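Usage

Read records sequentially. Each one opens with the input sequence:
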Amino acid sequence: MPLILLAAAAAVPPSPACSVSDRAIVGSLREMPPSIREALGGRMADRDQPFNISDAVPPGQERWPFLRVICGYKTATGYVVERERGGRAYSKGRIVFANSPAGYVEAPAATTFPHPASATGTADKHLAIAAGER
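and closes with the structure output:
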């Protein structure tokens, strides 16, 4: 039985590539600005770390997050976090943050867009919704 659990844990694939390569990127919440960490709520695995990629959660993985960082990076007007969301409908997307005097704040829904490497190519919901769906 333990061998099966070990195989399930090893089956989590590495994170997809970040969509940008022309700037400094980070792969961990710890490396992101405090206002972004606060907005994301901390329930996100770092790049290449285990997370629940599907809604079938094996024993021992119940506490794994359903979100994982692909990368984060500064833009001319703010900050972007590319992420994966596991569960029943796996998706990749971006959370866009705008500069503000108080730090970074989530941008309006119209500025959020799907991750360019999305397997389905469908639009991603804006992530300024319930924290459980981030």
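Summary fields computed downstream for this record:
- The beta strands are 67-74, 78-85, 91-100, 103-106.
- The first helix runs from residue 2 to 10.
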